[in-house]
Amino acid sequence: MPVITMKDIARSAGVSIATVSYVVNNTRYVSPELETRVRHAIEELGYSPNAVARSLRQKNTRMIGLIVPDSSNPFFAEIAKGIEDAGYEQGYSVILCNSNAQIERELVYLDLLRSKRVDGIIFIATSMRVDHIRSFVQAGIPAVVFYRDNPGLDIDTFRIDNFQAGYVATRYLIGLGHREIACIQPASAKTPSGQRVEGYKKAMQESGLVWDDAIMPRGDNRVGGGKDAAQALAASGRSFTAIFSTNDAMAVGAMRVLRNLGYQIPQTVSIVGVDDIILASYTEPPLTTVAQPKYEAGCQAVEFLIQRIEGGHDQGPREIMLELNLVERESAVQYPAKS
To answer: What's the pTM?
Structure first.
């Protein structure tokens, strides 16, 4: 008998997968009329997440589900590599799901992973909310979440101090003598990486400097967004001697465009990023960045997840704050440059 999924329920009830998730997990208001349709479809099709979970507990599949927002982004790829390597060493296979930064796809993949009877999931969410894993956890399926607050569940979370990342990067540029510092912002101010901008502003404020909104373009967290942001900076007509990019991928794109426009890095413009993706050490010049342990965090996430899967941890949620480290390379220098 085929496993019934949320997608089947949504099709039967004539609603979105998100609406089905809200009803099943009781995480958001749904009108009585829609809720009735969803519950009727659940009863008619025999959808039972808990029944699937009970079968899971009888026999492990030795499979781990991994959901990432963008599998093409080197940052997430490095975390995924740590997860895959650590899983392989422990005899677990990893099913990689790319949500493409769409919550609807997250819901589809969560449903898929449930139907595949994974033993646990590692979740890097698109939005600030991770309530949609509630039914997973309540069904007894262990979960680890990256870069989001724990929504009151018995899960493990891995985080960094995003405010500090932005503060450290900007203080470094100020310490080099820069006063006109641009900032390439992340795709959304509402995500944790938006706090990197707040760290930038705090560092500027403490030094008696004023940030200029005209040289604070918003990117898309990808290389292409960095290219567009650099074009906007060059077209702004404002002066800047340094750039803080809220992630390395956008810094890489910005460096490419700036060079093509005749800027010299770091002689006329210094740039600092965050994350220390593998490309950072191969740019020309190599990128100075605030590093976080991506591969190692992926490995540790698997260790924590397997502890829960195999009954080695039942002491409640754990929160791991990942260490930040400034990596000085060649993309930022003293201003004014020494002759």
So the answer is: 0.80
